[in-house]
Amino acid sequence: MIKRAILGVVAASGVAAGTASADVLDDIIARDELICGVNPGLAGFASPDANGNWTGFDVAFCKAVAAAVLKDPSKVRFVPADLENRFEMLAKGEVDLLARNSTWTFSRDVDQKFEFAGVNYYDGQGFMVRKELGVTSVKELDSVAICVQRGSTSAQNLEDYFRVNGMTLKQVDVASDAEGEQSYTSGKCDAYTTDASGLAATRAAFADPENHIVLPEIISKEPLGPVVRQQDSHWADVVRWTLYALIAAEEYGVTSKNIDELIKASTNPEVQRLLGVNGDLGEKLGLDNEWAKRAIQARGNYGEIFAANIGEQTPIGLARGLNAQWTQGGLMYTPPFR
C-alpha cells in the first residue's frame, strides 16, 4: 500500500510539473499550434533567416506533423533547443516535439524516459580538420586538440575511441555547434568532431570549404530522430506514423506534386490506405483520413525533403547512403499501413 501511495504522489507531481499530459494531441489541437524544439542554427537541418522564418530538414518534419494534426503546416512555433537543455525542455513540456538531430540511445529511451518516434536520419560521428594539417586518418589525431560538444554522445564516443586505440586525447569542450565552429576556425582546436551530417553543414557554411576535409572514418552509430515524452503513447503514435507516412510515400512514388492524381488513380491498396481513400487509419490516430495526404503535401515525401534541404544538389551535399530506401540499398523501411 505504501509503495502504491508513493507512486501516486510521484505521478501526480509529474503532471503538476508539466512533464506529462493526459493527451498531448488534445492540448495541441486546443492550442491550435504545435511547439517544436529545433537546433538553434544548423544549416540544412534547422536555421532561421533574418525575418525569423525557419527552414531545414527537421523544420520540414515539424511542418508535416502540424499539417497532419492541425491541417496547416504553418501552425508551428519553433523554439531553439540548445544541446544542454533540449531534453529538459521536452521533459518540462515546454515543447511538444523535439526534432533536433538527437541520437536514440539506451539511456535516453529507458533511463530518461523519452520515446523516439523513429529514425529520420542514420548518421555517424566523424572528424573535420584543416587540409593544411596534413592528416588523412583519425588515428593521426593523437594529442591533437579536438573540439567536441560537452554532454553529447559525441563526447563519450570520442573518449571511448581514444581509450580503445591507446591514443592521448586532448579535448576542448564547447557548448554548441556555433561555439564549436568558432573555436575550430579561430584555432583553439585543430579538429572538430560531431555527427558527420553536422560537419557537412558546418563545412558548407565556411568561406573556404575547400580548405577543410572530413576524414573518412565514422566511429559510431548515430540514429537521429524525433523525440516525445514517454508518458503519452497516443501522441508518440501520431508523430511516428507521420514520419512513416513520409518515408512510405517515397517508396510508393507519392510526391507533393502527383498526390491528387494518385488519390484518384492508384490501385495500390497500401497507397489507398495511406492517402485515406480506403480504410480508417486516420480515425484510429484520432485524426481525419487526410492526415497523411496533408503531411506529404506540406513539404513533400521523405526523399523530397532530403533533396531540398541536405541532398547532393544543396550546399550541404549529402548522399543518401544509409538513408536511401530499403529498395535502393538503404535502411529507410516502414511497417505496413494496414
Estimate the helix proportion, in percent. Answer: 25-40%
> Which series of helices and strands comes N to C?
HHEEEHEHEHEEEEHEHEHEEEHHHHHH
Report the C-alpha radius of gyration, rounded.
21 Å
Share of residues in strands: 15-25%
**In CATH, what is the homologous superfamily of the largest domain?**
Periplasmic binding protein-like II
Largest sheet data: 5 strands, mixed
Question: What name does the CATH topology of the largest domain carry?
Answer: D-Maltodextrin-Binding Protein, domain 2
Distance between the termini: 43 Å
Net shape: globular
* CATH architecture title of the largest domain: 3-Layer(aba) Sandwich
Task: Name some characteristics of this structure.
D-Maltodextrin-Binding Protein, domain 2; about 350 residues; 5-stranded mixed beta sheet; 14 helices; alpha/beta
